[in-house]
Amino acid sequence: MAEPAAPTGRAIAALALPALGVLAAEPLYLLFDLAVVGRLGAVSLAGLAIGGLLLGLVASQGTFLSYGTTARAARRFGAGDRSGAVHEGVQASWLAVLIGAGIIAVVQAVAVPVLAVIADGGAIAAAALPWLRIAILGAPAILLSLAGNGWLRGIQDTRRPLHYVLIGFGVSALLCPMLVYGWLGAPELGLAGSAVANLVGQWLAAALFCRALIAERVSLRPDRALLRAQLVMGRDLLARSLAFQACFISAAAVAARFGAAAVAAHQVVLQLWSLLALVLDSLAIAAQALVGAALGAGLRAHARSVAVRVTVLSTVAAAVLAGVFALGSRAVPALFTDDPAVLAAIGVPWWFLVAQLPIAGAVFALDGVLLGAGDATFMRNATLVSALVGFLPPIWLSLKFGWGLAGIWAGLSTFLVLRLVFVSGRALSDRWLVSGPG
């Protein structure tokens, strides 16, 4: 029996575009939240920034529930076992609840000393504390939504996650100004109102994901064997995520030591880099779902053709973005600042960004391919080696020898090149083409 044809660009886009909407919804809402709280003054805004940083770690470190579940569910779905795919979502949801409850307990216990260290005590820590104590109650909801995204992507459904996330953030956006300022008869809670609005939206989205899970009519009982298997994959993905965090925190710390203009320029370009990574990640998510399903069905050649097509699409898209940002090298930075010193400093990382984009397009696509194949241990090792060899040494050598932003961004470029070598070599080896339901 002949294998099916490779998915068309339209089929890939049908998965990638809703996934992009899910990825973009949170940063867009956070910008709105900042705008609302910003009118309360600098201390409230700083308190939100510090509290939001800690809450953001929950989401960033919990992504293994999304990516790991997608890979495992997609294989079962491709093998014709939809109920098995959904059952992966059930187990991921149990993990979300248990881990989320643990996070609440830990954060409530250590919030005061942690904020004292990060915010150096004082008014900012005092503002952040009530926000964090309220907002952290949404940790299980955040993780439930990540798990829900995972199993729904695994069964090739990226539309429902988009609807659920938009509903959740939409309700938060409505409640935020009402509760912060006391509009329409709502209590005027100030900064705490932002946390309550976040909490309501997160639990609403989580409830919608749970309703979708229950509607599948599968057993909701915990399965120890599946929980253990998910934790093993989660361990590898978590180690990979921590490597990223260590690199970017180190880069920010070193940039800060070159002065305010340098750290501001670094932050502007890094935020743009993060935004572009979201765009390219949407194609990686499509690759993950399609490759997992193909391998689950035993269609090795089909999985390989998906890998090639998505990598080409992602690389071309990244090259187009690189061209746009090259042409906008003067106009785009001026949208973020009019400070001459910052604008002068931006020129260095800007051209690194432009040069990196086509490499990043291929790397992110192949990341999605290998994650879809469940090749998490290799991805962990490749990322750790690339970080320890390619990224961290140039960052800290920049500080010692005064290389400035050029050294930091050369480190990021080396990190991407090494990852490209690892993931392309792995993809060409075909060792990731392990068929079966997993």
From TrEMBL:
Pfam families: MatE. Transmembrane segments: none annotated. Belongs to the multi antimicrobial extrusion (MATE) (TC 2.A.66.1) family. It is found in: Membrane. GO terms for molecular function: antiporter activity; xenobiotic transmembrane transporter activity. GO terms for cellular component: plasma membrane. It comes from Mycolicibacterium fallax (Mycobacterium fallax). NCBIfam families: matE (TIGR00797). Keywords: Membrane, Transmembrane, Transmembrane helix. It comes from the Bacteria. It is a multi-pass membrane protein. This is MATE family efflux transporter.
